[in-house]
Amino acid sequence: MNPRSSTREARGQTLVILAFAMVGLVGMVGVVIDVGLQWADNRDTQNGADATAHAGAVVIMRYLTGSDPTADDGDVDTAVNLMAAQAGIDVVLAEYTNYLGERTIGVEVGDGGTIPAGAQGVYVVGTHTHETVLARVVGVTELTVHTDATAVTGPVPDPCADARCPLIPLTVPNTQVTCDGQNKSVLTNDEWATHSVIIIPLCGNNPGSVGWIDWTPPAGGTDELAAEICNPDQSIDLPDWFDVTATGNTNSDAVQTCLEKWLNMPILIPLFDDTCRINPMEGNPCPEGEDPSGQNNWYHFPTYASLYLTGVYIQGNHAAECDTGNGATSCLHGSFEDTSLVGTAGEYVAPDPDAPEPISQYFTVQLVK
Asked: N or C end: fewer C-beta atoms under 10 angstroms in the chain?
């Protein structure tokens, strides 16, 4: 036997074994990487399913509240599919639910006709398929994630049941706002405290600042704003996008005087959670490239808040009353009684057509599963 040839044979076997081991190792690493990517995809798909179910429930809310009395199954189906397309998911199933999110209605979205009786929500199953990166080495070329979500709508308790609570054309962020020392507003992640007096600074005119709503754009101006505060007569359906023509301090004596009319009383104001240079229309986020700038932007109002107004400091310099350590010279004082119209969506009961004009109900749209 030639010992040199035996060594060459052993080396050849080692190379073959090593080659198979490397393939297996790359495949295992690829699976780990692709599973990580799938977790991320699962999160994105879940967000898409949440948004899709929410979009369908908003249409049902508008139908039940009478703001869109002609809405039908086709409108729900359109809202669901538009949001799914924007979120990049495929809808496997969309089905109506009751106010508890239970699938007892037995009707799928898109069957046609009217919105079925008892429908107060939408259940959605969404999927998304993505190609693998390295797992294809072991024959896995794509992975699919499945997620589901349920959103319902229904009446919630009136935050102003015990007193008149006028809707004022003023909006504040759904989290606390402060100033940066250069008269610009800075949003925080801290929720507003409730049932204790707080300071809402009116600093800056940058997007995301406390804003003043223009009910009749492109008109407006401080004269109209003051008139709407003195004699409010508007009602709006939320969630939706609205035109906010000015932010920060209006420096208007008329606005000051009209707000003082509501001192030591509860007022109703919408909270905002997003801003945009254009109107994306309800159910849509601000499109990429349309970030707000300057004044005259669109604000998204997801809900109302009840604010018990205790101080109005608009006209003039009120550093003593308004400065929280960041340079604000104008502000509002008040106590939030409710910042989200919280509570479980209740069962909708159609008003009796022969009864007197019903008291308006506050509705919520919320994810329940």
From this structure: N
Angle between helix 253-260 and helix 222-230 axes, rounded to 10 deg = 10
Asked if 337 contacts 247 with a C-beta cutoff of 8 angstroms, the reply is no
Rounded Cα distance between 311 and 322, Å, is 10
Q: How far is CA 102 from CA 97, 105, 297, in A?
A: 5, 8, 39
**Number of CB atoms found within 10 A of residue 339's CB:** 20
Specify the pLDDT at position 6: 47
**Residue 367 dihedral angles phi and psi, to the nearest 5°:** -80, 135
Find out whether 132 and 123 touch, Cβ atoms under 8 Å: no
Token look-up 């898109």 returns: 110
Contact 314, 252 (CB under 8 A): yes
What pTM does this model have?
A: 0.61
Q: Are 365 and 153 in contact (CB under 8 A)?
A: yes
Query: Residue 91 forms beta bridges with which residues?
Result: 126
181 closest CA partner among 319, 311, 293, 315: 319
From residue 67, alpha-carbon distances to 60, 211, 229 in Å are 10, 25, 23
Collapse the DSSP code of 298 into the 3-class scheme (helix H, G, I; strand E, B; otherwise coil) and give the result. strand
Averages of pLDDT over each 10 residues, the chain, 369 residues: 48 53 55 59 84 92 86 96 91 96 96 94 91 61 84 80 76 88 82 87 83 77 88 80 86 92 90 90 82 85 87 88 81 81 75 59 79
H/E run at residue 65: helix 3-65
Nearest CA-CA partner of 210 in 243, 249, 182, 180: 249
Q: What's the rounded Cα separation, in Å, for the pair 63 and 323?
A: 45
Q: Other C-beta atoms within 10 Å of 153: how many?
A: 27
